[in-house]
Design goal:
8 strands; 8-stranded mixed sheet; binds adenosine-5'-triphosphate
Amino acid sequence: MSKIIAITNQKGGVGKTTTAVNLVASLAATRRRVLLIDLDPQGNATMGCGIDKRELEADGYEVLTGEVTAADAIQRATGDFDLLPGGADLTAAEIDLAHADRREFRLRDALADIVDNYDYIFIDCPPSLNMLTVNALTAADAVLIPIQCEYYALEGLSALLDTIEQIRRAANPDLEILGLLRTMFDPRNNLANEVSNQLFEHFGDKVYRTMIPRNVRLAEAPSYGVPVLLHDKTSRGALAYLALAGELLRRAELAKAQA
Ligand code: ATP
Ligand code: MG
């Protein structure tokens, strides 16, 4: 079963963090035990969970360098899930890990002790293919790729698929693509529909049937430091992420039955 899932796309601003926070909160609302790892120096997921990235005692950086254990860095987030926070310190990981041993395996090794405490662990990745992303992809069982259906979306995707293939060869042969998620989707936009059709042609069943519409409540929620479920649970954005959680769980059940 895919339990550790990296939410990744090196393209910026496609909805990785929004998906990470709100999918995790939606799974927590269905009583799953979930951990969110913020592996982005921007710390947006951390702030979006109501935790101040400037006041962290320990974050992903100390976990990657081995100064603290994951268990010691984890905090409880607003919305009934756990958060391994991230902030500006993570920027230094790139340099500090450059000559470290098992540098790609730092996150995987750090999670070994706590993985059994959770049903799912999601990792919010930065918008680049750096050492942090490599650590996420090496620790993960699978990737979830948010895609904004616009002109350059598919071009960026092939670079990401190449990276996934490289990681499979080098460190993590079982890394799967869990699914592709259409974000900020506007069904009235012709280009969006065209790109969406191309996604189905190339990736078939890997594309989630659930799509996330553009919804202002999703954009507002982080300014209150809460997932959208706690900001406006009847909004289209909140309902879309609940539907995505449902689809993800149904697919996992199906995969288990077929195994
Ligand atoms: P980065 O690459 O910088 O980490 P990201 O891929 O994590 O970005 P987000 O931060 O989730 O992307 O989203 C980018 C911006 O778009 C944010 O301001 C967010 O609030 C907004 N946004 C994301 N999804 C939606 C949506 N479905 N409807 C409206 N606004 C959205
Ligand atoms: Mg982000």
